[in-house]
Design brief:
Elements: E1 6-10, H1 15-24, E2 26-29, H2 36-43, E3 49-52, H3 60-63, E4 71-74, H4 84-89, E5 93-95, H5 102-117, H6 120-128, E6 147-151, H7 155-166, E7 170-174, E8 186-188, H8 191-197, E9 200-203, H9 217-223, E10 228-231, H10 240-248, E11 254-257, E12 276-278, H11 287-306
Parallel strand pairs: 1-2, 1-3, 3-4, 4-5, 6-7, 6-9, 7-8, 9-10, 10-11, 11-12
The protein binds 1,4-dihydronicotinamide adenine dinucleotide and the ligand O=CC(=O)O.
The site of the ligand O=CC(=O)O has 5 residues, from loops.
Amino acid sequence: MTEKPEIFARGRFPDPTEELLEQHFNVHWERRADDRARMLADIGPRIRAIATTSAQRTGGDLLDYFPNLEILSTFSVGYEHVDIPAARSRKILVTNTPDVLNECVADFAIGQTIMLLRRMGEGERYLRAGQWPKGAFPLGAHLGGRTLGLYGLGGIGSRIATRATAFGMKIAYHGRRRRPEYPDYAYHDTLVGLAKACDVLIAVLHPSPETIGSINAEVLEALGPKGYLINVARASIVDRDALLHALQNKTIAGAAIDVFWNEPNADTAFFDLERVVLTPHQGGASVETRAAMGRLMVDNLLGHFSGQGVLTPVS
Ligand SMILES: NC(=O)C1=CN([C@@H]2O[C@H](COP(=O)(O)OP(=O)(O)OC[C@H]3O[C@@H](n4cnc5c(N)ncnc54)[C@H](O)[C@@H]3O)[C@@H](O)[C@H]2O)C=CC1
Ligand SMILES: O=CC(=O)O
């Protein structure tokens, strides 16, 4: 019987994923190490793969423990927690888990849109606080007839658009180029232009040098006092101080934030604001989606070790 490849596993995965990893590999769990430095020194040269969640940062300093590392497989679409140039310079293949969570994150983004516009979270807090007998809760706003602006029209963004259309919303988007496959969606060649044109701006794209901090004071001003921001991408895309200022001064109507600047610590400065929905990075957090992500992460590792090739390399 051939030896199972030895892998280093970082973070905590759902039980079925951990079982799959144990089934196919000889797994060294970082979280179970009594003495991490000794563990790394002992197993480093034998490790051929890393499996990781997005909560762990992997840079060149860690990769140096693994001179025979071939592949790093992350249990996430996002890969900003991996130092891609450091991996590339060591000829380490990196894979992620795109597409299997598109529908799940799109459902969630629409859920946040409804929650925000219809003020459902605030309404529930009002009821629980015993405020209802003192007067009816203020009115919310419809989705139908409003324009949804997508900053990122990829796997997830395109699914959000389909759902929003069913709610009667018009779709606009900003990207690096016009997408002829979406003739019914209005293209804006600047983010400010998109923000001006839409009522609800949803960020759903990878953080990159080009996009980090791109939702800034100018964009929020363009969104205006009747505009809502929803961020299901990464916090780094939004200028935190500009957003806080806009919410405090009501220069935008509200925001839903699923991703934070220092996860898993939420930013308490946003806690007491009205018209704000805060969630703990739940976009892809369903049992079914997590299982599919785990399967894909493991399939990438199996594809690599069988010689058949990985399914979803980070390009
Ligand atoms: N909140 C959550 O739980 C989750 C968040 N995400 C986030 O969503 C992001 C997007 O995921 P996918 O839709 O799968 O990615 P994708 O790669 O399919 O789509 C991203 C889109 O953004 C566009 N884009 C890239 N740079 C741009 C720029 N400078 N200006 C405008 N558009 C640009 C791309 O052309 C592409 O159409 C992920 O990178 C991740 O950060 C993903 C999964 C779950
Ligand atoms: O944020 C989640 C991911 O898969 O990326």
